Amino acid sequence: MQTNYDYIIIGSGSAGAVIANRLTASGQHSVLLLEAGPKDRYFWMNVPMAFMRTLQHGGFAWYDPSLATQSVGGRTIAITQGKTLGGGSSINGMLYVRGQKEDFDDWRDAGCDGWGWDDVLPYFKKSENLERGGSDEHHGRSGELKLSWVDDLPLTSRLSMQAMREFGLPFNEDINGGYQDGVGYLLATIHRGRRQSTAKAFLHPIRDKRRNLTILTDAHVRKIRIADGRATGVDVATKKGERAFTARREVILSAGAIGSPHILQHSGIGDAAHLKSVGVEPLVHSPLVGENLQDHLFGHLKFRVASRRYSINHKLRSTPRMVVELAKWMVMGGGLLGTSSSHFCAFIKSDEALSRPDLQLAMRPFSMLQLKRGVTTDTFPGMMISAIQTRPYSRGNVRILSSDPMQRARVDMNHLSDDRDIATLIGGIRQIRRIANMPALKDVVTEELDPGPGHVSDEELAAYLRATASTVAHPVGTVRMGGEGAPLDSRLKLRGVEGLRVADASVMPRITSGNTNAPSIMIGEKAADLILADVRN
Q1: Is the pLDDT reported for residue 1 higher than 80?
Q2: How far apart are the C-alpha atoms of 21 and 74, rounded to whole Å?
C-alpha cells in the first residue's frame, strides 16, 4: 500500500464519500479515504425500517454521552454518529430534507460567500436521481443518489395528514423546494425499498474501477501532521499498527461535528490555553474550534389508538409477521420494511408572528419505548407525533480531555439551556394536541399517554420536555465557516493552516431547518468543486 497521495480524506460519511467520488473522477488525482469504522457489510443496514436494529448493533456508530446538565433534568443524552462507510447515511432514518432557502441566505449574509440558496441549489441537484415528481427547477434526475417519495402511506398516516389539513396547514407538494410551510410527502434516501447511503451511491460503484482511489477502513486518525504552517499528512492507528500517510495537495477533514473538532484539537488546532491544559502542544490558536455545537431535539407526544388497525406496533414486535414482511421486502423491496422512519412531516410556526416555520412535525404509525441504548416498540397499539425545533438557540461545545487521541472528546450539547427552545417546543406540543382532536383522528386516538392530560401549564410541559426530550442526532456547527473569527473561510479552508479543509456538518454556521443529511451531502459536492477549482487555477 502506497503512503503518498494527492488528497487524504478523513471520514467516509455523507460528505466524505461524495468528495472521494468527485476527486477521483478524472483519474488525475490519487485519493486516500480513511474511515474509522468497519465496512458497511451488515445485512440489516440495507433494510430501511431496520434502522433501529442497526443502531442497537453498536459496531457501526459512535455513542458520545453528552455532559449531564440540569437543563435536561440531569440526564446524559447519547449523541449517535455513523462509524462505517457512508457514516450517518448508513444508519440514519433516511429522510431527505434540505431546509429553507432562508437558512442558506442567512449563511451567505453571515460571511459565507457563495453559500446562498441560489448558490447551493445546483449542488443539491447534482447528487440527486429522482425519477418522478418535483420540478426540474428544484431536482436532479441523473445523479448518483437515488431518492423516492414516501407516499404509499398506511391508514393512520393518511388520516394524520388529513387531520393536519383540517387543522389549517396547506398541502406542500415539495418541502425541498426552498419553502417548507405546510404538510407534505417526504423524500427518502431509499430506492426500490433499499437504503441509499452515500457509500452505496458514491463509493460502491467505483471502488473497484478507479485505481486512483484507496479506501482504508478501521483506520482511526490520531492527528493531522502540520509542518511550517501546512498540513502534510496524517498519523493513523490501524489493526496492523501505526501508519503515516502524506498528502501532496490537501487533507480534507470530514469526520463530523464531533469527530472533526476532536481531530483538530489533537493536531494542535484549537484554543491554545485549553490545548496546553490537556497536554497538547498548540500550533494554531483557533478558539472557536469545537464551539457553536447545535442539535435538533424531539418533543414526543404518544397516543394510544383504538385498535391494531391503526398501529403497526404488533407487526414490529411479532417475529412471524416480520418474517413475512422480510420476505416481501426481499422479493419486491416493498411492504412495511421498505419505508422510512417517519411517514410524512409538516413545518409550522410556533407563533403566527414569525415569518417562517420553526417547527417540524414528524409522524409515525407506531409508538416507541426508550431503552438504555436504542428504542423498541410498545406492546399496545399506539402512534406518535413529535415536535422538533428546527433552529435552536442553545449552543454547546466539543473539547478533548486528554492528549490521548483514542479517548473521545467531551461533548456538552447544552440542550434546552436557552428558554426560547423550551417555549418553541411547548408551542409544538400544544398544536399537536389540537391536531389529534381534528375530525380525521376522532375514531383513531383514544388517549394521550405522553405527556398526558395532566400536563397543561407551561411549567408542567417544560418539566416534561426537560425530562424526556431526545436528540434527533443532528450535531452541527463545531468548525464553522464564515467571516473573520470563524475557523474556516467560505472556501472551507482552515485559517492558519495551508492545505487543510473541513467539509461536513461541522462547517454549518447555523443548523438547517430539518434533517441534516441532505445539506451534508451538498456540502460534500460544493467542497469537491472548490478543491478542483483550486487545481484548475
Answers
A1: no
A2: 43
Domains of the chain: 4-42+198-293+476-536 (3.50.50.60)
Neighbours of 136 (CB within 10 A): 9
CA angle 446, 154, 57 (to 5 degrees): 95
The helices-and-strands tally (H runs, E runs) of the chain is 13, 27
How far is CA 172 from its chain centroid? 23
Which of 139, 300, 343, 474 is an active site residue?
A: 474
Q: Contact 233/249 with Cβ under 8 angstroms?
A: no
pLDDT, tens digit, 9 for 90 and up, residues 44-53: 999 999 888 8
Residue 41's CB is within 10 A of a number of other CB atoms, namely 9
Mean pLDDT of 136-146: 97
Strands (E), 401-498: 410-412, 445-450, 470-471
CB 387 within 8 A of CB 359: yes
Whether the model clears a pTM of 0.85, i.e. scores above it, the answer is: yes
Residue 128 has pLDDT above 70, yes or no: yes
Alpha-carbon distance of 427 to 334, in angstroms, equals 36
Cell of 117: 440558496
For residues 373-395, give the mean pLDDT: 91
- Cα–Cα dist 269/262, whole Å: 10
In this structure, what C-alpha cell is assigned to residue 477? Answer: 456547527
For residues 342-369, give the mean pLDDT. 93
Rounded distance between C-alpha atoms, residue 348 and residue 165, angstroms:
12
Q: Is 29 a catalytic residue?
A: no
Amino acid identity, position 383 = M
Using CA atoms, how far apart are residues 523 and 503, in angstroms rounded to an integer?
A: 6
Coil/strand/helix, residue 108: helix
**Per-state percent for the chain, helix, strand, coil, to nearest 5:** 30, 25, 40
Query: How far is Cα 217 from Cα 195, in angstroms, rounded to an integer?
Result: 21
3-state secondary structure of 201: helix
403-420: per-residue pLDDT in tens?
999 999 999 999 999 999
Query: Across the strands, what pairs with 236?
Result: 221, 243
Within 10 angstroms of residue 449's Cβ, the number of other Cβ atoms is 17
Cell of 489: 473561510
- What's the pLDDT tens digit per position in 174-196? 999 999 999 999 999 999 999 99
pLDDT (0 to 100) of residue 63: 94
In DSSP terms, 299 is beta-bridged to 387
